[in-house]
């Protein structure tokens, strides 16, 4: 009898300790360095998602989430250090991160080796999820965006000839441009991409390349750069006399785009993961809450980070355990409605999602259409 | 010498800081092609003007203290931010009075660039003036890094790109062979005015004479009663102010500023100064325009070459003619 | 005749290795700390090799990470793209070691090439040219699609571990130390002190300058290769000017011309960097100040300026600890 009571007490004690134990979630993003704005958005998204889950009573068994967020400075070596720290020192059960593919690729092998499931909100390089079966992502990949952009240009904008300008030092823009060209030439015929110019990273003057492009008379210009470059490129293109539409990728997504580009980015379209103008309730709720908390409209990075966190926490909940393998198995079976759409994973742990096309009209982002894979 | 369509005749009086008579004339018709056409030339001149302003500061400082001030590009950045700040500060007071606003903004950029330059000199370079030169060089690297990271860390400035406001509304002018905006005119004109002003200063004023003296022979100048440190201070002030204006012009022309914006232009302007002959004011201008044009033509041809052309020029210059185009031959110092 | 005090240093090194291994095996130290130690050791190789060029021979080189990049890419290409080995494969370790050495040799070749401009240029000009070379190397890698271009060279097998990195660091220190203490080293020192005078005394300054660059580059290449096999990727952004400056800060903080200084500085600054991360987080948490990791680099650059202003010779100056110094028989 006494022994039974002792055991009972111990069990209850253990159970209460376990129940009180927080679930540690690691978050990684570049809050400093060249991609700092993206990192801040990502951090915001993760933080907000964690707060919401904790407000609703935690993940399972009343266990709340403790977020440990680290800065990777946009640097692969720093990323490796940070992932190692989160896993070895902080003992996180899962990681949401990170933004830049090159950093994610440094961290993924570490997570994979340790059996810690990880989901990247915005790394679009194909190779990321190929590192191993513990690596997932929440966004569509580069090839998809370039293809969507090309289809849109050909079908919706009725372009017969296209040109592209991209940053030769950036894998993301290069990847999008390559995929755009491949798809467009498949649709419109070989040689329909009449100009394909690269520019060095950090350039401010694109007139040399644009002059060449305009001389080739394209109907549409594909500019898969980041918003800070797009603004300048668009301005200079208009200055040099280009009047056609421009198409780009999710790198356009920033309120600074219209500030830098002004009227030049009108008649511009870009593929994105989500649009704050999307009428779905889940989107509108998210936008409202984000605005209230952070004072600005959430960009796609914030939305994806929020989604990625939700996906991960949902998986942990369904797994009912903090064991890496259990969470991973639950992730594979994900079927969740999130801000950026409905998410299920394919065999390579990439989400099967649609893209939205957003138009810049009167200085605002206007939702144009959704394209499904 | 002849570059493409331009024949530049440099008439030098004193190779180091003398007055240069640069006559630019267009030579006949334009060669066709999307690379060497009038539009690209205009592009190159615009870029070159901004490089020229920065290069002048580099060359002046080097001429006087033989220091490559790595932080010079960051004075350019500070000028851009200062004018940004000034614009938003005074915008509401001078609505519609673009002229006054433009003047305020210009003054702000020059003041900021010049003052920070002087501070850097006073705090970081002066103490190391008579120590091995490499210490100064490394300190300059430190100052540069500090300015960049500090501005990046400040919450109100932050690391992200900011759009620069339209201080002067943009007007397009179609000249048939090329389309230019009034910004091109402004860039080239402001640069030209400042360069002329500097040359007058260096040639005619007492300070200018003192600057020339110190750059020729520091010790002799001191013996003649010239306050070396004061002259050096003024040199930094002027050089920094020029860089600041360049920052303002760049902010206007490429309306996007961020804390690291000074790195690339700084490096290219430095190479331009070396190309022209570091220490030579006309050399800096010449080098800058050559650099601007070369870069534009190279980028039009192939972006990869465009990226590397600046360094290619540097290495060629240093291997073939280290003193630059207009620099004076210095014997190997013992 | 120099009597090598190798045993003393060897003992110290073995002790260090044993202690770390024990701590790790008995879980008193976790993988995170070990990772920082690994990184510190690699920085020791980089710092000591840069010191050979800058500190001992007095040639101002600002492109050191470019050499590391060559080493990283060459060794990475061999192990990942050409031989496609992994740690469990038989003979994999051998191919790995050979690849690292190949990377070092390739880097040495580049160093050899860069040694030549150094013959004609001094001080600032040399600094700029080496900076330029470093950037050109980085740009070249950024544009070769075969090694991934801007995506970087990915999927490099993880061969580097504490043991291998430790051995490499140990060998680097011994070799460079012996070089410095030999007649060759004295020649290099004389070039640093007064190049013209050493020419007049009959020292082949050309040979020694180029030698310094080549050897320094060789070890930088080794470090690069080890690093690439630790992170499992090589990316052009890791080998740019800013990274070269970080190594520069280390040798100046530690004392230009002192191997001990470079070792201490490499460890101190790497740990400091991580410590700042925690320290800043602590300050931010307790005081609520909106400061974050971005202030790390601000502090770093201020550190450099202060060292230059107040203690230009760094921590150790040009002195060595007794463990490293070779005793001269009088």
Content-based structural category of chain C: mainly alpha
What is the strand arrangement across the widest sheet of chain C?
1-4
Order of helices and strands of chain A: HEHEHEHEEHEHEHEHEHEHHHEEEE
Kindly report the oligomeric state of this protein.
heterotrimer
CATH class of the largest domain in chain A: Alpha Beta
- The DSSP helix count of chain A reads 12
How many distinct beta strands of chain C?
4
- Span of the ends, CA to CA of chain C: 8 Å
Overall strand count of chain A: 14
CATH architecture classification name of the largest domain in chain A:
3-Layer(aba) Sandwich
Helix/strand/pairing class of chain A, anyone? alpha/beta
As residue ranges, the low-confidence spans of chain C are none
Q: Any idea of the CATH topology of chain C?
A: ABC transporter involved in vitamin B12 uptake, BtuC
Average of pLDDT of chain C? 85
Keywords:
heterotrimer, A: 373 residues, alpha/beta, Rossmann fold, 2 domains, 5-stranded parallel beta sheet, 12 helices, 46% helix, elongated, C: 330 residues, mainly alpha, ABC transporter involved in vitamin B12 uptake, BtuC
Model description:
The complex is a heterotrimer of chains A (373), B (334) and C (330). Chain A has 373 residues and is of the alpha/beta class. Chain A folds into two domains: 214 residues, 3-Layer(aba) Sandwich (Rossmann fold), CATH 3.40.50.2300; 130 residues, Response regulator (Rossmann fold, 3-Layer(aba) Sandwich). In chain A, 46% of the residues lie in helices and 18% in strands. In chain A, the strands form three sheets. In chain A, strands 7-6-8-9-10-13-14 form a seven-stranded mixed beta sheet, with helices on both faces. Chain A has a five-stranded parallel beta sheet with strand order 2-1-3-4-5. Chain A has a two-stranded antiparallel sheet with strand order 11-12. The longest helix of chain A has 20 residues. The model of chain A has no long low-confidence stretch (mean pLDDT 88). Chain B has one domain: ABC transporter involved in vitamin B12 uptake, BtuC (Orthogonal Bundle), CATH 1.10.3470. Chain B has a three-stranded antiparallel beta sheet, with helices on one face. In chain B, strands 4-7 form a two-stranded antiparallel ribbon. In chain B, a hairpin with a 7-residue loop joins strand 2 and strand 3. The longest helix of chain B has 28 residues. Chain B is globular. Chain C is mainly α. Chain C has a single domain, classed as ABC transporter involved in vitamin B12 uptake, BtuC. Chain C is globular. Helix content of chain C is 72%, strand content 2%. Classes of the chains: A alpha/beta (373), B mainly alpha (334), C mainly alpha (330). Chains in contact: A-B, A-C, B-C. Chains A and C meet through helix 3, helix 4 and helix 6 of A and helix 2, helix 5, helix 9 and helix 12 of C.
